[in-house]
Amino acid sequence: MAEMHSLMDSAGHEEAKNEFFGAKESSEKEASLLRNLRRWPGCLSWAALTQLLPLFMFLGLFLFLATILVQVSRLHQPPRGSTEDQQCNRNLANFSQQIQLNMKGIHQLLAQINASLASLCHPCPLGWEHFKGSRYFSRSQKNWEASSAACQDRKAQLVIINSEAEEVQ
């Protein structure tokens, strides 16, 4: 029985020794971790970091997949700038055609105005009166011979006024 007790003691001693030295080894590890944590205050422990590692991996994978999704969606969309540029070019071409048509119309109007101005008589000199395409010079009353001589000097013709409207003008 003494032998058994000694075997148990030796087995118990071994267990106690392993327990003590194992505890000593784990306490040494914990002490070194505590020293390391004291160097970096506010840092998480390794246990907390290992628990957060799957979360960080998931977030990284999520960001990677989101980036790929955005890039693929950009590939399948027509470029916005090119359609806007094409629309602007079409609008510019239409506007240019309208301007050319307007300029053509303006040139035609100017040609008509110039033609009508060329056919008009020149403005009357100072002292002359204009009435329905005719010009009248003198308001003074002279006899027929004196009036006829004055018209010939000016290379004009002496006329007879038959209407009151022409005379009043």
From TrEMBL:
Signal peptide: none annotated. InterPro entries: C-type_lectin-like/link_sf, C-type_Lectin_Receptor_IMM, CTDL_fold. It comes from the Eukaryota. Keywords: Disulfide bond, Lectin, Membrane, Transmembrane, Transmembrane helix. One of its GO terms (molecular function) is carbohydrate binding. The chain crosses the membrane at residues 44-70. SUPFAM superfamilies: C-type lectin-like. The keyword Membrane applies. This is CD209 antigen-like protein 2. It comes from Erinaceus europaeus (Western European hedgehog).
